[in-house]
Write a structure and sequence with these properties.
heterotetramer; A: alpha/beta; TIM Barrel; 32% helix; B: alpha/beta; Elongation Factor Tu (Ef-tu), domain 3; Rossmann fold; seven-stranded mixed beta sheet; 34% strand; globular; binds FE2/S2 (inorganic) cluster
Chain lengths: 304, 255, 304, 255
């Protein structure tokens, strides 16, 4: 038997495979396909304090080994969450993690305070990296001083496990990882989407209503992996690797580079059972390599 | 009707003309209930340009044979690859997805309007309506005579009306110019096709006070309501075409 | 007949399809396949003042719709170039452009001065964006002040057409474009490779000898296109678009986003005749759209 | 011998065992001169994981039939896809690439040593040597009897010696343990196979003062000398395996 358990701060995960925010709904959409409680955790769709209609259609474009999206944080707001979503997701027998977003620091703080009161929310992932909103989002995540401010404010407002999700659209990702660690984050997750764009040459128009959008999928994996590796060397808090993870082999690359856990994103669109398949594949790999504990391979490329 | 992910085996691949083909797919396990208007998300293997699944309406269902059919128009790399599938090849589907058309109540007069690949969801819908004891009117529009497909299949089920843009078959012009639309009184219309066509039909129905449902083909990444990419602006805000649709009552759409 | 000619400063290009540095050798490698003088220009392999052995093997890894490389500017140095390469490339009936690299500003200046004396070098492309060398390279290209210094020094030393090649590994690419313009660059080319990484999970080792390397190919196209669009809106000098251009459709996206010319890179590895095919495809597209001049589509998405 | 890019048509695809198959490819235009040791860069279509071309030694050339053969070992996604090609399919090659083995002078005694897929370049080399009037010694190494391939083809051309690691056929052990290597006096050896094998043969030749050429299989992106990814460290600095090689005299390598 292989031990797949990991911890982030005081929070235990039965296994290191989580789902990425915005790609797994609230989990309910996947119940037809598998028991979502088998996963180590579920990161819910990004929530804002007020409801948001998101960006106009068209919101997505396919790209080589990837996709662009500009959903723009469409969600029904915190009141709706508490009334309608929380009662469902609190039944899952795994870590349910909220993904919080805002235009102003006060929004983040207000959300953090409200999630703090919801006993079955295992952690919050502070998203300062959404590229598809005009205010907040990536604006926080690409400026060191703003990042520090929002992380500090949320840390003060929230007593649980705090994960900070970083934007890859920066020159030195490790600076942002250090800031998060200094401000008391329990873990860092990365990457959110890379800012990209595509054009329909027949209509001569951008494919997305907002012109630019967030690139995800296997195309971004080499960049994500590099950034996870850089952050793992820069900070001591656990890293959650995200970006183009389609199969167990991809996930294992992230562990070897220094991630303690991974999030499966776009893969769930293409194969709704990807996340459990990845979980099974990781177990098989460890068994074949006769490694008894996932923790043994975390950051291994730096030690051999 | 839980959603499933399943490997089907290609039973047949029938080329209808330069652009269209019908895939007949055999399921390995008994088919679930499928309602007319629902669709499947198809994984296209072996085509580096097709990263995401491709959505297709379920064109027909045969519970005895345990098969479904997809009517597909070649539009790009993915459909091109699918057109090359041979009997015995396998194809992975996530299905049945989305809502479905409203089956009319006894005595209602209904017209199904399909243009181009928009005729795809109409065959199974026509069957279900016929099973409900109503003979549907079916108005099909094509560019020209050479592009007319499945005319006979529809004729077996309902009263078929035909238009071609160049007049080489049926009535010349667009579906919205066909006399049946103007002359007969319908309680309900169902429409799928190019957006301008659906909008024209919706406008006609709006003016005439006829209930009208259309099937939208918004770009989709997941097909199961999680990516929020396929939204359509409605009177109730942004809704997902893949779960709240693909069938919408046109009075809900901000057209 | 479609007019494909464009200009950068005083320099005329018979068509806007160039080849990217490091992916087309010195052109001679492609002579078996087609007449390289048909292209609008050829950017030569990066040159340094002294010979460089480059990085250890392994130097490349395949990634989804892309590749990583860590060649590390292997080249035989400027003396060798003048003696052995220049006599050959000066025979081409198209613009031959040098790509210059250094560890110190003095290196760049020395190279620029020597290329200035070679009458058949149409322009230099100042590469401040190579991710695969320890000193110089991307270090210049990711720091605004260093970028400014090296561009200024080269501009003083070189009287010909100066193209500055930008690194995509930055938070705000438009800042670097503006700096280049302010310092007198005649054009900006982008993107160089994105810093990425991959790991062989069987050996549990990085795929590249230097751990990280430069990502190129279709995977990076959405990011490249976005950056070209951002820079085209930020500066008035012409932009040369680079990144994942595999076919005419890709190239046209870059023109529509604001590029005046494109460079074909990794595509030449997979299909040595890509560059001329792309040229032919652009011509066909314009004919079909009944557009008489390539210049009409440059930046078109911003005007409709 | 200019390089070309050309679509070949699959004439045959012969499976040799679980891992190996031989593709026979017909050229549309007369084949250029191809020298033993040269290789082709093959475009693998329909496999999203294979972005770059795949290099394979030219295993055999038949000028009368205007065909070439590739002997391929299934190693991953690309070779897997190639193993599924059927007669009539087309395959795009850039070829002939790289340098070639030195054809021995009259009277020289030569031994060809191949292990696993390293036997690929040896067949055409053996033919060329035989044409030069020399009967080559050919030492082939495999893991076990079931993996022995093309033994008869080589026997038609030269004196074949065989080793298997488990002794189920020929001499038990590695090629470097075969008595022919020790007992006979050769002027020249040619070797292709796993790196440890090539290094062992090179060491033997070095000690015995025998000229030795090996064919390297460094990772390649372009195959035509432009990417500089395939370098090997030599006494003359970094050289490109694809243009300065793939054949190297082992005294030039820093082994
Ligand atoms: C719910 C739903 C049901 C559908 N049912 C059918 C059907 O029964 N039969 C059928 O032939 N087609 C149907 N479509 C459209 C079909 O999904 C697209 O034609 C297909 O995905 C194109 O894939 P491709 O790789 O061949 O083309 P691509 O190379 O991806 O695109 C080629 C062209 O088609 C356009 N396109 C791509 N996807 C769509 C889309 N979803 N809607 C409209 N245009 C698109 C692109 O913008 C591009 O211009 C349906 C779409 C939806 C959303
Ligand atoms: C000049 C040259 C000649 C060659 N001749 C032959 C031949 O005649 N027959 C034959 O079967 N193979 C030959 N090879 C090796 C062949 O190119 C690889 O096995 C093939 O590219 C693997 O592709 P893949 O997609 O199946 O595997 P991938 O999925 O790309 O890789 C699978 C595994 O194979 C390894 N691999 C990939 N490329 C190479 C390579 N170039 N060398 C060694 N290992 C590699 C990978 O590291 C990985 O572990 C030759 C290689 C070179 C450079
Ligand atoms: C359609 C879509 C919606 C997303 N929404 C969110 C979100 O609400 N909050 C967030 O932090 N990240 C969001 N992301 C980013 C993903 O969580 C993830 O960081 C990114 O997609 C990279 O991982 P992948 O390549 O595995 O998809 C979204 C991504 C996609 C594709
Ligand atoms: C193998 C390789 C070597 C390269 N060498 C250089 C170089 O010497 N100088 C330079 O400015 N860019 C170099 N580049 C970057 C390319 O010129 C180009 O900017 C990049 O590959 C993106 O374009 P592509 O996706 O079309 O390849 C190199 C790229 C590759 C793949
Ligand atoms: S396609 Fe993803 S929500 Fe509809
Ligand atoms: S493979 Fe590109 S130089 Fe050898």
């Amino acid at each position: 038997m292989v031990n797949l358990g990991i911890s982030i701060g005081n929070l235990k995960f039965k296994n290191p495979v989580l789902t990425a925010s915005g790609t797994f709904g609230n989990g309910t959409e996947f119940e037809d396909f598998f028991d979502v409680s088998r996963l180590g955790g579920i990161i819910l769709k990004g929530t804002t304090i007020e409801p948001r209609e998101g960006n106009p259609y068209p919101r997505m474009a396919e790209t080589p080994s990837g996709m662009l999206n500009t959903v723009g944080l469409q969600n029904k707001g915190m009141d709706y969450f508490e009334r309608n979503i929380y009662p469902k997701v609190s039944l899952y027998k795994t870590n349910v993690i909220a993904n919080i977003n805002g235009s102003y620091i006060e929004d983040y703080v207000a959300l953090a305070e409200r999630f703090d009161k919801l006993g079955k929310i295992a952690a919050i992932e502070l998203n300062i990296s959404c590229p598809n909103v005009k205010m907040g989002g990536m604006v926080f995540g690409t400026d060191p001083a703003s990042s520090r401010k929002v992380i500090r404010a949320v840390r003060e407002a929230y007593s649980g496990t705090l994960i900070v999700k970083l934007s890859p659209n920066v020159t030195r990702i490790e600076d942002f990882a250090r800031i998060a660690e200094e401000e008391g984050a329990d873990a860092i997750s990365l990457i959110n989407t890379l800012l990209g764009m595509s054009i329909d040459i027949e209509s001569m128009k951008p494919s997305l209503s907002t012109i630019t959008g967030g690139l995800s999928g296997p195309a971004v994996k080499p960049v994500a992996l590099r950034m996870v590796w850089q952050c793992a060397r820069a900070v001591k808090v656990p890293i959650i690797g995200i970006g183009g993870i389609m199969n167990a082999s991809d996930a294992i690359e992230f562990f070897l580079a220094g991630a303690s856990a991974v999030q499966v994103g776009t893969a769930s669109f293409i194969d709704p059972v990807s996340s459990v398949r990845i979980l099974e594949g990781i177990e098989k790999y460890l068994e074949e390599k006769k490694i008894g504990d996932i923790k043994e391979i975390i950051g291994l490329i730096n030690s051999i | 009707m839980p959603k499933r992910i399943e490997d089907f085996v290609i039973r047949g691949n029938k080329r209808l003309n330069d652009d269209f083909f019908v895939l007949e797919l055999a399921a390995g396990t008994p088919l679930p209930d499928i309602n007319p208007g629902q669709f499947a998300e198809v994984k296209v293997e072996g085509s580096p340009e097709t990263f995401l699944r491709r959505p297709f309406s379920i064109h027909d269902v045969d519970y005895r044979e345990n098969t479904i059919k997809l009517l597909i128009q070649i539009a790009g790399k993915g459909t091109e690859t699918l057109s090359g599938l041979r009997p015995g090849n396998s194809l992975n589907l996530v299905y049945p997805l989305g809502n479905s058309f409203t089956i009319p109540s006894a005595g209602e007069k209904v017209l199904l309007v399909g243009g181009g690949c928009g005729i795809a969801p109409m065959l199974y819908l026509a069957r279900k309506i016929a099973q409900a004891g109503i003979v549907p009117g079916i108005l099909l529009g094509f560019r020209n005579k050479k592009r007319v497909i499945e005319y006979e299949d529809y004729q077996e089920i309902g009263d078929v009306y035909l238009t071609t843009e160049d007049g080489s078959d049926g009535v010349k012009g667009l579906v919205t110019g066909h006399p049946v639309l103007m002359n007969s009184v319908f309680d309900r219309m169902y429409c799928c096709g190019p957006e301008p066509m659906m909008k024209a039909v919706a406008r006609h129905c709006g003016n005439a006070g006829i209930a009208c449902e259309v099937s939208l083909e918004n770009l989709m990444a997941c097909g199961i309501g999680t990516c929020l990419c396929c939204v359509v602006d409605t009177v109730r805000g942004n809704l997902c075409t893949c779960t709240d649709g693909p069938v919408f009552n046109t009075k809900d759409l901000k057209w």
